[in-house]
Specification:
Length: 153
């Protein structure tokens, strides 16, 4: 699993091992909370296209997403990096009925993180509106009072 340099310090070897073996969204969420609780405030998170919209493929979207995270971290921002969760997410996706995964990922993984108050700001990538998930995250940010920033890189 690749972790951005500035992200590694918040992960333990146990987190990495548990994530590599994760078989449920609940397990991934628990690991995310372990990592988030080690991070200094204020914590931000990037929102944008991964599986829908964006550059047309998941791989191209992941590259752009990761570049955005690295860019914000280089500016000194504390960013919760979701990239380590992508491989387990894709693996878990195959175990759930079609259509159920996307909803479960949003409601069972991201919503508890947003409602926890640990994430103080959401950074929306250019073309975020082309993503169903990012539009949902935008709605949640507005409802929960999480600060929104639209980034241009």
């Amino acid at each position: 699993m690749d972790l951005n340099h500035s992200t590694r310090e918040y992960w333990t070897e146990e987190d990495i091992l548990l994530l590599e073996q994760a078989e449920s969204i609940d397990t991934m969420r628990d690991i995310a909370f372990n990592v988030l609780r080690r991070m200094p405030a204020p914590i931000g998170q990037v929102c944008g296209p991964i599986s829908t919209g964006g550059r047309g493929t998941i791989l191209e979207n992941l590259i752009a997403f990761n570049e955005t995270i690295v860019f914000l971290q280089a500016e000194g921002k504390i960013i919760f990096d979701q990239m380590p969760f992508e491989a387990p997410m894709q693996r878990i996706k195959t175990t759930l009925p079609a259509g159920q995964y996307a909803t479960a990922l949003l409601t069972d993984f991201y919503l508890p993180i947003f409602t926890s108050g640990l994430i103080k700001k959401l950074y929306f990538m250019p073309d975020w509106e082309s993503s169903k998930g990012a539009r949902w995250e935008h709605d949640q940010a507005k409802q929960l009072g999480i600060e929104i920033e639209y980034i241009k890189i």
